[in-house]
Amino acid sequence: MERLQKVIAASGVTSRRKAESLILEGRVRVNGEIVTELGTKVKKGDQIEVDNVHIQRENKVYYVMNKPKRSICTLTDEFDRKTVVSLIPCVERIFPVGRLDYDTSGVLILTNDGEFANTIIHPRYHLPKTYDVLIDGILKPEQIKEMEKGILLEDGMTLPAKVRIRKKDFEHKKTKFDLTIMEGRNHQVKRMVEHFGYQVTSLHRKSIGFLKVEDLSQGDYRLLKPQEVKDLKKLAMEGK
Ligand code: URA
């Protein structure tokens, strides 16, 4: 059973607050009866009408995509760049959970479930995210230690990160490493690297918790299994 205003809002007709006004104004019917009480609960199968128009209850959907480089995570773009949402032809109004930069590829979850999205990105919860990072310099042991302890960025200290060096190319002055962070602040990886005076030259998110996209080409996606959705929520909440 769910609150009527929540179901109306989730159907995309309007916001939850406007849905409350519609109910109070007597413009909502449940199974043919006008309902004006805000606490009213409705169940699956109840027929809901707003201004005599039936509303469709949207199924909750969860996708994981290997986000391609040169795509953006906002829903629209003033420069007409490709959006990640446009890559998944579905009727539900999905949105990305958190953001990856235009030039970042890798694991991205998309859903129409706002509550799930909040659990995954809420700063109170901590889901490990591992990035495959390439930088234009040689990362020094003391810099690795600093990342593992926490770095002071302009929005505060980062939580301890894990660093795994994959390759140091002394000839071309490049380091390739895996960086696991427990937060999802804006441009966090780039800012951590810039803290030491380097630039990220390639960034790919390899995983969010147990979720990987090794079997997906860039731009490809699949539905998450119900158990994966449950496990992601659990993992996020365990990392409180
Ligand atoms: N950190 C960044 O700097 N960019 C991303 O896209 C993701 C994490």
Describe the structure.
By secondary structure, the protein is of the alpha+beta class. The protein folds into three domains: 2-54, RNA-binding S4 domain (Structural Genomics Hypothetical 15.5 Kd Protein In mrcA-pckA Intergenic Region, Chain A); 62-124 and 212-238, Pseudouridine synthase I, catalytic domain, N-terminal subdomain (Alpha-Beta Plaits), CATH 3.30.70; 129-208, Alpha-Beta Plaits (2-Layer Sandwich). It has helices at residues 4-10, 16-24, 114-121, 141-149, 188-194, 226-238, and strands spanning 2-3, 28-30, 33-34, 41-42, 48-50, 53-54, 62-67, 95-96, 104-111, 129-135, 152-153, 156-157, 162-169, 174-181, 200-208, 211-212, 221-223. Strands 7, 8, 9, 10, 13, 14, 15, 16 and 17 form a nine-stranded mixed β-sheet that branches. A four-stranded antiparallel β-sheet has the order 3-2-5-6. A hairpin with a 7-residue loop joins strand 8 and strand 9 (104-111). Helix 1 packs across helix 2 (16-24). The longest helix has 13 residues, at 226-238. The radius of gyration is 22 Å and the shape is elongated. The two termini are 28 Å apart. Uracil (URA) binds at residues 100-101, 104, 187-190, 203.
